[in-house]
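Please fill in the sequence for the structure shown.

STRUCTURE ENCODING:
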């Protein structure tokens, strides 16, 4: 009887802590709106979709068809959903920002199609969204979060600035509000 009572108390306390954590999590603003949002995962088979242009044609065709459906106000692709999947965490190098080896200079990187920020109602704070013309044969365009901009260019306009991530140079073309990526 004592063991059963002790086990019951442990379960009740654990349940209470779990409920408290869930309530706290629901109180956090993720930085995007989830109401009326449907997510799907698209896995494109190799080698048919190895070429970037082939994948881009597929995405454009699918998004065009989805946007024509009744009730759809926006559609876009993202490489990894925020708060749901891992995604890439990459070192960041900024020429004007001294890198302190004791401090982690990393950021989460996602690839998105035009219209992603509008579809998720993530506020555009400056500059522009990614465009269809932002391709690999042009300088890489980046839309960065407000916290990223404040970290590397505090109290400065980040638009037009450069940083290196994933072994490539990126040019900041847009600034959006922060979204929770992990946790």
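FILLED IN BY: designer on duty
SEQUENCE:
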């Amino acid at each position: 009887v004592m063991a059963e009572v002790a086990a019951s108390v442990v379960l009740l306390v654990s349940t209470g802590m779990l409920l408290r954590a869930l309530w706290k999590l629901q109180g956090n603003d993720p930085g995007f709106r989830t109401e009326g949002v449907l997510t799907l995962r698209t896995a494109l088979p190799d080698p048919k979709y190895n070429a970037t242009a082939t994948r881009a044609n597929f995405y454009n065709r699918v998004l065009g068809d989805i946007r024509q459906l009744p009730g759809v106000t926006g559609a876009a692709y993202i490489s990894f959903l925020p708060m749901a999947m891992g995604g890439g965490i990459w070192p960041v190098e900024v020429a004007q920002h001294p890198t302190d080896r004791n401090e982690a200079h990393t950021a989460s990187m996602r690839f998105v199609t035009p219209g992603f920020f509008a579809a998720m109602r993530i506020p555009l704070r400056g500059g522009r969204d990614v465009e269809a013309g932002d391709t690999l044969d042009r300088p890489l365009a980046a839309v960065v979060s407000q916290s990223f901009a404040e970290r590397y260019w505090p109290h400065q306009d980040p638009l037009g600035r450069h940083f290196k991530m994933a072994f490539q140079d990126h040019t900041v073309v847009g600034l959006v509000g922060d979204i929770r990526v992990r946790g």
